[in-house]
Amino acid sequence: MIVVEHVTKTYGTKTAVNDLSFTVNPGVVTGFLGPNGAGKSTTMRMIVGLDRPTLGSVQVNGKPYADHVAPLHEVGALLEARAIHPGRSAYNHLLALATTTGIPRRRVSEVLDLVGLSTVGRKRAGAFSLGMGQRLGIAAALLGDPEVVILDEPVNGLDPEGIVWIRNLLTSLADEGRTVFISSHLISEIALVAEHLVVVGRGQLIADTSVAEMRRVASGVVVQVRSPRAGDLARLLLDDGVTVETGAEPGDLRVTGLAAAEIGDRALAAGLPVHALIPTEVSLEEAFMKLTHDSVEYGQTDATRHLEEVSR
Ligand SMILES: Nc1ncnc2c1ncn2[C@@H]1O[C@H](COP(=O)(O)OP(=O)(O)OP(=O)(O)O)[C@@H](O)[C@H]1O
C-alpha cells in the first residue's frame, strides 16, 4: 500500500505538488493520470525516496521508502530515466543490478521469462525496440519480487499487442495481492490497464475514482440534435440544469441534461422540425479533458481547443 499524505513539493518558487493526499491499495491496478507537468513523476520519485517532500509524508507499506531494510523487495520501480548500457545484454544488465543488490542470479532468468525476453536475453540492449526496452525496464522493476510496483508511463509507445501483454502482467501482479501504480497522461491508455484512477492536475488531486465510475459519469449525457431551426430549438430547450451548445455543423446542437425522448417531445409540441436526435456517450478522453481542463500547464492541447470550439 502507498499512502501519500498532504504532500507538497516545491523547487524554488515552483510548486510541483500541492497538498496532495491519496492511497494506492493492493490488489488492483491503479492509474496515476494527469496532463504533462501535473506532478506525477515528482510524486513517484518521492514514493521511491529519490526526492523528499517539502511538506507531508509518503509511506510505502507503512514506512518511508528509506526506512525499509530491503527496499527492493518492497518497491520495484520503472521511472523515466532508463539507464541501460547499450552494449550490454539484457541478461548482464539485470545481473549487474541483481548482484549489487544481493538478489540471487536465478532471479534474472525468472524475470526475463516473466517479461518474455528469455530468447533475446543475451542480445545487446542497445538493439532493442522501444517495446523490448519497456519490457526490460519492467523486468528490472520486478527483480526484487516487490510488494509494490511503480511504473512511470509503461504503456507509452507500446503497440496493441504490447498493451495487452502489459495489462495481463499488471493484472496478474495485482491479483497476487501486490500494489500496482502506473502513470500516464493519456486516459485512453490507462483505461486499458488500470481499474482505479488517481487524477492530478497542477500538483493537486482532481479525482480518486474507479475507471468504471468515470465511464458511468461520462456516458450518455450528451444528445446531438440537428434541426433547421436550431436557434429556436435551443431557446426552447434551455432550462435549469440544461445546457445547449452549438455543434460542429450549422444546425447541430449538443444538449446536456435532457433525454433524447424529452427533446423530441418538446420539439414536436412546439412544432419545431428535428432531423436527427442522437444520444452519445461522452468519451473517457472528453470526460478527462473536462476534468483537467483548468489544470493543463503548457497551454491547450489541440483536442481541448477543439472541444471548446464545438461547444461555443
Ligand atoms: N527538479 C526540478 N526542478 C524544477 N522544477 C521541476 C523539477 N522537477 C519537476 N519540476 C516541475 O514540476 C512540475 C511537475 O513535473 P512532473 O515531471 O512531476 O510532472 P508530470 O506529471 O510527471 O509530467 P509529464 O507527464 O510531463 O512527465 C513541472 O512544472 C516541472 O517543470
TrEMBL record:
Q: Which InterPro entries match?
A: AAA+_ATPase, ABC_transporter-like_ATP-bd, P-loop_NTPase
* Domain of life according to the entry: Bacteria
Q: What Gene Ontology molecular function terms does this protein carry?
A: ATP binding; ATP hydrolysis activity
Parts of the chain that traverse the membrane: none
Q: Where is the ABC transporter domain?
A: 2-227
Q: Which family does it belong to?
A: Belongs to the ABC transporter superfamily.
Give the protein's recorded name: ABC transporter ATP-binding protein
Its source organism is Pengzhenrongella sicca
